[in-house]
């Protein structure tokens, strides 16, 4: 189960990089980049949850 969490963290980081690369930096408005912003936010939350879960099991 621990390896699955590490894999999910890795996949989330790759997706974050993908969303950042698709973001239109010329126009950072919500209307142009809503999908990228939501994807980045969701993946950051996933990484935070996985890290907290891994830290809780160590205690």
Structure description:
With 59 residues, this protein is mainly alpha-helical. It has one domain. It is 85% helix and 0% strand. Helix 1 (2-22) runs antiparallel to helix 2. The radius of gyration is 14 Å and the shape is elongated. The model has no long low-confidence stretch (mean pLDDT 94).
Q: Biggest sheet, in brief?
A: none
* SSE string: HH
- Work out the strand percent: under 5%
Q: What is the tally of helical segments?
A: 2
Domain unit count: 1
Shape: elongated
User: Helix proportion of residues, in percent?
Assistant: over 70%
Poorly predicted parts? none
Distance between the termini: 16 Å
Tell me how many strands there are: 0
- Structural class by sheet pairing and helices: mainly alpha
Radius of gyration: 14 Å
Short account of what is shown:
With 59 residues, this protein is mainly alpha-helical. It is built from two helices and no strands.
Topology record:
Blueprint: H1 2-22, H2 30-58
Helix pairs in contact: 1-2
Features:
59 residues, single chain, mainly alpha, 2 helices, elongated
């Amino acid at each position: 189960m621990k390896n699955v969490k590490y894999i999910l963290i890795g996949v989330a980081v790759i997706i974050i990089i993908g969303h950042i690369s698709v973001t239109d930096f010329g126009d950072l408005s919500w209307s142009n980049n809503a999908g990228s912003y939501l994807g980045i936010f969701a993946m950051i939350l996933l990484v935070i949850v996985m890290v907290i879960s891994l830290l809780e099991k160590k205690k």
